[in-house]
Write a structure and sequence with these properties.
With 70 residues, the chain is α+β, with helices and mostly antiparallel strands. Helix content is 29%, strand content 20%. The chain has helices spanning 36-45, 47-56; strands spanning 3-7, 19-20, 25-26, 30-34. 7% of the residues are buried. This is Suppressor of fused-like domain-containing protein.
Amino acid sequence: MKNFVFLSPFLWDDPFEAMELDDKKVAWLLAVPISDAELQYALDRGVPELESILEANSIDMFDLNRSSVL
């Protein structure tokens, strides 16, 4: 996996809320490794579609050698 997609955290039951600072807002994101095929899918169909497929397949995002879901 040589590509990454940044997603809202979905591993935890309680969502991470954005943090409001004096002059900025901080949103917490996960850097999820994805295959070339998954990257192309996201470019063609959109990140929300890819995110749905990744979640439906319960990917192990810590396994850089996992098989592509596509």
